[in-house]
Predict the 3D structure of the following.
Amino acid sequence: MVNSLEFEKPIIELREKIAELKEFTAKSDVDLSDEIETLENRLEKLEKHIYDNLKPWDRVQMARHPQRPTTLDYIEYLFTDFIELHGDRLFGEDEAIVGGVAKYYGLPVTVIGHQRGKDTKENIRRNFGMPHPEGYRKALRLMKQAEKFHRPIICFIDTKGAYPGKAAEERGQSEAIARNLFEMAGLRVPIVCIVIGEGGSGGALALGIGNHLFMLENSTYSVISPEGAAALLWKDASKAKLAAETMKITAPDLKELGVIDDVIKEVRGGAHRDPKKQAEFIDETLKRSLKQLISLSEEELVNQRYEKYRAIGEYTVLNEYIGTHK
Amino acid sequence: MIKDFFNKPKKRKYVTVPSDAPKHDVPEGIMTKCPQCKKIMYTKELKKNLHICLHCGYHHQMSAYERIESLIDEGTFTEINAELMTENPLNFPHYLEKIEKDRQKSKLNEAVVTGIGEINGYKTAIAVMDAKFRMGSMGSVVGEKIVRTVEEADRLGIPFIIFTASGGARMQEGIVSLMQMAKTSAALKRFSDNGGLFISVMTHPTTGGVSASFASLGDYNFAEPGALIGFAGRRIIEQTIREELPEDFQTAEFLLKHGQLDDVIPRNELKDKLTVLLDIHQPRGELAW
């Protein structure tokens, strides 16, 4: 059984009750099918009510669910002939980011994504999906390769953020991220970015400069984690729940802010309930997106991407400058 | 005894009221104490020396307009896009009130001043960040002003120089602030592809989203001595790796040692060095020999 989250408790309790009644019916002569039916109807309503009214904090928990499908899961469902490619050719191999070549309905593509582990052992190997500079440099190497061979690039974003470590700083974490933003802006092939879990700050953005940017319904994308925001803004990390609401980090929020192109719907109860079905939802959007982008010329692709980010920002222009220059 | 009772409150009168004044701001007083060597000197003298300590060479923070004055030939500077004003994209509580407060305190309308001016006769687009305004953090206005300055440099075919001083992204603008990293980097990419020259000079402090975007994207990346430069905060790194970091961690000198900078340039040599670089990038005619 999949791990349950705090807000799902009423559903779990009701499910257990139904299971209990069913077991009782099977064992004894008493017919409880009417009661079971009533409860099942109620469960259906309850599920709909809870899952259709998820609060930002609920979505944060969904996005962080240990069983939430990862980049490699989606690669398996969505692509054929995936060959993983390793290393940045400069320093090392960072398993917090995976990438390689594959086919998407016969079309050669390059796929890159952050990669969390499924268990502690894998998480240690993959540094919990938090990349070092070599991860970003590997990603860029693969993107440049994709450009050379005119392959579209698909990026899956799923990281708490770039790793805040000593070695990462020494090897130029800032520069590695900045370089990716800079180079991705100029790549002459289609780029589609999909946030599948947590989109943590610059570490997420470094794979996130695309012609189209999508988010799964229960994924988040933010400048700082809710805990970090709470600590920074209110000196109180326990206000994370409030921060999750104030900071506008959910997929619907970002759609409203005009930062993402669309929200990809999720399986009810979260992507982890049915990864295969979830991959189908992604597939629909990805196919539509790529079809549209492939029809654009190289120049149009670069321009469309430029204008997309150029337009983000909110400010007003005063007729007269009211500040003082000395 | 009754007398004592009346006297008591008097003693309690003296409480320390937290001051609103920024800690590193040059105080109103005529004297300034250097935080590094602790020596005291005349503020005017310090100012004349470009805010470099006369005794130990410590680089005190400098305001954006002081920086411009120290670099740009007199009478050649024209500020551009000063009329861009902050909005509140997330409807973040009390955000605009804080902006207004900083505006009054710093006499700046946002955390960056942009314009066109000449450095020893070389026409240049320039952006100078000021950490006095919201820690120099980057929101929509900072991102937009930088992009507009880069686009103007592109249009005029002149170099672009930035002086960074920033704590990173502007929290109160959330994801919109993060996207300014993408926006500024994209503008610099376009500028670069068109052959534009971009020089980044990182000053104290240059961290987070600013260090992970335009600050690191110069054709030449320089820093001032002692400047704090890095992606993640020192405290967060110490908590993550559970070890104490060396004292010079994330200083300009540390970055230079690790191959992350072209050079560390003292403030009083900056104008000359920039002039040489600008000269080297001037279009050349035929060989003279």
Notes: Chain B has a mean pLDDT of 91. Residues 174-193 of chain B form the longest helix (20 residues). Residues 26-60 of chain B form one domain. Chain B touches chain A through 69 residues (CB under 8 Å).
